[in-house]
Amino acid sequence: MRKLLLKTFAVAALLLGYAAQVAATPVDTFEFSSPDKQKRALSLAHELRCPQCQNQNLIDSNSPVARDLRLEVYKMVEEGKADDEIVQFMTSRYGEFVLYKPRLETKTYVLWLGPVALLLFGGLIGFIFIRKQRTSGGKALELSAEEQRQLDELLKRDK
């Protein structure tokens, strides 16, 4: 009985160890020629969105596409390409979607100016509503004699 328990424990420990290795994700390690290039590459990878994950930048994503793009950014930084060239390469390949901060162009005016327009529209509606409430709130509601009598009866009954 004791041997069976030990064997079961050993098998469980091996399976647990194997499962831990399978769940581990590899970490990209790039050897940069200078700390400045490393900072540039990390900055660019933070600014670029993963085309597959959609809501993660290249650093945060574990997808194969993000891994390939991190390698591409690393190579281009090491080759001495400028940040604008790298961003241009990525946008030409994957479109404006890869930019977390899209450029201000005619096709992105709605994206940049839409929130401001909605805020102004909401402020205008609020201003009109408040102004209407103030102008109509000054008039007292007049009750007919019958309504006043019913109100008086209700108030007397509650006392």
UniProtKB/TrEMBL annotation:
Tree of life domain: Bacteria
Function noted in UniProt: Possible subunit of a heme lyase.
Domain CcmH/CycL/Ccl2/NrfF N-terminal: 15-155
Protein name: Formate-dependent nitrite reductase complex subunit
Keyword Heme: yes
Regions that span the bilayer: 109-130
Recorded GO MF terms: metal ion binding
Entry-linked InterPro entries: C-type_cytochrome_biogenesis, CcmH/CycL/Ccl2/NrfF_N, CcmH/CycL/NrfF/Ccl2_sf, For-dep_Cytc_NO2Rdtase_NrfF
Gene that this sequence comes from: ccmH_2
Residues making up the signal peptide according to the UniProt record: 1-23
Source organism per UniProt: Shewanella algae
